[in-house]
Amino acid sequence: MTDCIFCKIINREIPSYTVYEDEDVYAFLDITQTTKGHTLVIPKQHVADIFEYDEKLAATLFSKVPKIARALEKSFPDMEGLNLINNNKELAYQSVFHSHIHLIPRYSKEDDFSITFANNGDKYTSEEMAEMAKTIKENI
């Protein structure tokens, strides 16, 4: 894809701080550095989001994530945790439409990063939950 910033990074048209690369996967430091070591892991094949992955691409990309996560942990001994984030489509805060996984090291509760999840469980009856699960199963 000619207008994709991540494709340009892969093709060395735009510089990046590479932390890992193989035939199918490219990982580099996110220029925002939400926290020290914030890394993006991307497939070299241009896919917009998770909905365009096939099983082989998913297995290839996601199998590299633990290796890179362990490298972050070894590199930053003060790291106390790690967030893995994958945003898909604009409503879910995807801003670059080349699929990517954020590995965000966590150092303390005060490291300027937070995620909260609303608890809406009481909005659904057990019958509605069972119906949701049934519908999803039927579509797998």
From TrEMBL:
It holds the Pfam family HIT. One of its GO terms (biological process) is nucleotide metabolic process. Transmembrane segments: none annotated. This is HIT family protein. PANTHER family: ADENOSINE 5'-MONOPHOSPHORAMIDASE HNT1 (PTHR46648:SF1), HIT FAMILY PROTEIN 1 (PTHR46648). A motif (Histidine triad motif) lies at residues 98-102. Gene3D superfamilies: HIT-like. It comes from Vagococcus carniphilus. PROSITE patterns: HIT_1 (PS00892), HIT_2 (PS51084).
